[in-house]
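Notebook, bench 3.
Goal today: get a predicted structure for Ankyrin repeat from Thiocapsa roseopersicina so we can plan the truncation constructs. The sequence was checked against the plasmid map this morning, with no discrepancies at the termini. Length recorded as 329 residues. Pasting the sequence as submitted so the record is complete.
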Amino acid sequence: MSVIQLPKRHRRAMSSLLLLVAALLFNDVQAAEPVSPDLGKELRLAAMIGDTETVAALLDEGVPVDSANEFGKTALMIAVESDDLETVALLLTRGANVNARTVASCTPLTFAAEHGNIAITAVLIERGANVHDRTRSGWDPLMIASRYGIADMAEQLLFRGADPKASDGDGRTGLMLAAAHGQVEVVDLLIEAGAELESRDREGETALLIAADAGHWHVVKALLDAGADVDARDGLGATPLILAISQDHPDAARLLLERGADPNLQDEDGTTALMEAVVTDHAELIRLLLSYRADPALTNSDGLTAADLAKQRGNQEAAALLAQRPSSP
């Protein structure tokens, strides 16, 4: 029997049922429609300014908690950058992805490391943030904290299992990054945690070579105290002493010599620390090296001695010093 053949009262009931089903289907279609991108942007803006109430209201309206901008940055990441612990906690409670990534592979935890927020870092880790995740350049949170000298954060990350031996895209470890920026407190923490003293980056440099080149004598001391090779060589054969002299860092140079650095080692071009001192016109360093028995008779790959270089440069003071034989220190 067709609907038309049904009694009138039954046809009315059937029509009402069909209308109800149609209304329910329409409502389902409406609910399935994607949230306006403008609302996602509004969520991120609210997170940026710390408007937690608006963030909560938008989430209640159905705005996806992980709605991201064109760079992949979510409201959680923005709240982290804003050092807004309250909004961070709310977003995590509402299901925000603690390990979401931007197009550059940054995560909420790497943002927290960059901004040095210890409390937010702790909350993120408690909620499952991966301490080993890296940015596109290969930096993990520990490397970032090491570079910026955030000792409390580095200690926190190490306690949570961060790897002090990991290296970035250039082969640099957290220890090297800390050494390059003179972060001696973090250097001590990393050494204690088992960082490798003689790891090398793509240029063949160790943490000690990097610290000597930058003139961070206190980092040089910490590394030598831990047993770093005082005569390590980089990819071009230069030693920490040669680098310290070439960059005019007398404190680091003196410390290296006091710890047994060989003043007569030569790089692949035959250059010695003494030659570097002549080239940099640093009389104090020339005196220092000669007092540690640096040999002025050594020649470089061009067959030139330190005295020859002094003559070429017209440096009469250096030439006079090289003609002397100062007593040992």
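The chain has 19 helices and no strands. The mean pLDDT is 89.
Flagging this for group meeting.
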